[in-house]
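AraC family transcriptional regulator
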Amino acid sequence: MQFHITSGINLLSELFPAQTGKRTPIGYVHFVLTLQGEAWVEIDGRNLHLQKGSFLFLLPNVQLRRISQTEDFLYDYLFFAFDYLADFPLLLKTDVSDKAMNMPHCKFDTETFALIKRYFHLINERQGYTEVTKGLLFSLIVEISRIYTDLNIATKISRQDELTDNFFRLLHSYYKKEHTATFYADRLCVTDKHLMRTVKARTGRTFHFWLSDFLMREAKFQLRSTDKSVTQIAEELSFPNSSFFARFFRKCVGITPLQFRKG
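Tokens:
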């Protein structure tokens, strides 16, 4: 397939695998526009925070891994082969490619976000007409090249961003067993108060929100996709007992685990 576009997709697994190793195919470029919600992904070993207005410019042979996403996360996504636009002039100048390689993620302002979103909408709407689709896609590439030409590449990541990224990497690995801020803070060589303040400042959500989010998404998956008992799931997620887990689940979701499974 030389061209594909998907609009308003929720699952990061469409593009980002859970394990490191997947790479974007040779000869293809991927564009991803975040519409709402938040997600954390890893691109070539760098942790990135996606939110509304975030744009990913993924060149061939880029390594991808998903870390986490909020339940309301939505994004538009398209890819194309260089051969698909073989009849058009050179697509990506060297300086644009270099910037995309060094900075695959950028955050659009409101006006630019609306412009790129319109392009995605038009391309999706007109994809049955190949020549029109190619023309719109070429125009989108020119717009994105213009944006990247004017982009100032950030050479340093802030200490807060680095700490937050490392926290989510640890949370992804240990949330089933470790439920205290102290554990993660100790691993990151900071105080638990400093970690919690930083996470709240960088994400707008508390440590306990993110821990609960990870736990509840796993619990929902287990309830709907396996025949494990509530007790087994509670033990796997390191809750003291099934009653405590059931109360916690109801507080977060609004119904009991069994009601969720039956629904």
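The longest helix spans residues 130-149.
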